[in-house]
TrEMBL record:
Methyltransferase domain ranges (all copies): 146-227
Pfam families listed in its UniProt record: Methyltransf_25 (PF13649)
Sections of the chain in a coiled coil: none
Lineage, top ranks: Bacteria, Bacillati, Actinomycetota, Actinomycetes, Propionibacteriales
SUPFAM superfamilies: S-adenosyl-L-methionine-dependent methyltransferases (SSF53335)
Origin species: Kribbella lupini
UniProt cross-references to InterPro entries, sorted A to Z: Methyltransf_25 (IPR041698), SAM-dependent_MTases_sf (IPR029063)
Protein name per its UniProtKB record: Methyltransferase domain-containing protein
Gene3D superfamilies xref list: Vaccinia Virus protein VP39
Length: 297
């Protein structure tokens, strides 16, 4: 009798790099034929890849072949939110959100910024995001106190201050914090997911930051923003789904793209009311520029 547990099957987000599985002992990769990144992932993990005609319908076969082991399954639509872990409980299959992979994704993205802070500074537009800053002026015409999440190089903070706002510069990347300090500005190390925001402030400002959070992570951040300030101004990418990309910095970053309806719903659930929603285009695609105020309790 084989008493070993059934296989632990990981379903990652598309394009997840091998670094995200650092805490896992993956023994094999299975994938649908239409999954172009499977071979690259398997090579990075040092395991074999097996292409299946119907990966979603072959869970039991995979489990029987890898009892007590962990494998990665790509390209299988099981109707669950990714990333996920799928296991057989004895009564049937069950899935849970793979928090370890979500945390790894954020850590990998931050590490990319740590290693490529100077490259990021040289590749982004030099001018501040006037589109978003004009929305701040609508909310705070006489100026106000602003918590900036993900200040990066500090370009937006400088323009906000020029317009009369008082800005607390913060970033989760130490390289950016040190960059801003070297430029003569006070800056604090603050992780939007895990740190206390302090405050209260008049407004939270986040330019090209929320696009690195999954829906669940963004819900947490929006709730923290609602505790910190009555106004919120941010940008995020327009589109659908979650992707990994090495563009511009040659190291992996995770991006979440949003359609307008789900984004509005997420904001409403977190206690925010959209006052302005404008669209913009850049070389990386479509963007939302959003100004929201906190709904009174």
């Amino acid at each position: 009798m084989n008493l070993m547990c059934p296989a632990r099957i990981l379903l990652p987000l598309p394009g997840t790099p091998p670094q995200a599985f650092a805490g896992e002992r993956v023994t094999a990769v299975y994938a649908a034929a239409s999954t172009p990144t499977a071979a690259e992932l398997a090579a990075g993990l040092g395991v074999e890849v097996t292409v299946l005609e119907d990966p979603a319908g072959q869970l039991q076969e995979i489990s029987d072949a890898h009892r007590g082991e962990t494998v990665v399954l790509l390209g299988a639509d099981l109707g669950v939110r990714l990333p996920a872990v799928v296991e057989h409980t004895g009564d049937g299959w069950t899935s849970v959100v793979a928090d370890s992979l979500l945390q790894a994704a954020n850590a990998i993205t931050l590490q990319t910024y740590e290693q490529r802070a100077d490259s990021f500074r040289s590749t982004i537009p030099r001018d501040p995001n006037d589109h978003l800053i004009r929305l701040v002026d609508k909310a705070l015409p006489a100026g106000g106190t602003v918590l900036e999440l993900g200040s990066g190089t500090g370009r937006d903070a400088a323009e906000l201050e020029r317009r009369g706002h008082q800005v607390r510069r913060t970033d989760a990347t130490l390289a950016f914090v040190e960059m801003m300090r070297a430029d003569g500005f006070k800056a604090d190390l603050l992780n939007a997911l895990t740190s206390d925001y302090g405050g209260p402030y008049d407004l939270v400002f986040a330019d090209a930051v929320f696009l690195h959070f999954t829906a669940g992570q963004l819900a947490q951040v929006l709730a923290k923003c609602a505790d910190a300030a009555p106004w919120l101004a941010f940008t995020t990418r327009e589109g659908e789904g979650v992707e990994w990309s090495n563009r511009f910095l040659d190291l992996p970053r995770q991006f979440t793209l949003w359609e307008e309806g789900p984004l509005r719903a997420l904001l409403a659930d977190a206690g925010w009311r959209v006052q302005e929603l404008e669209r913009g285009e850049t070389r990386s695609g479509g963007w939302f520029h959003i100004l929201a105020d906190r709904v009174a309790a």
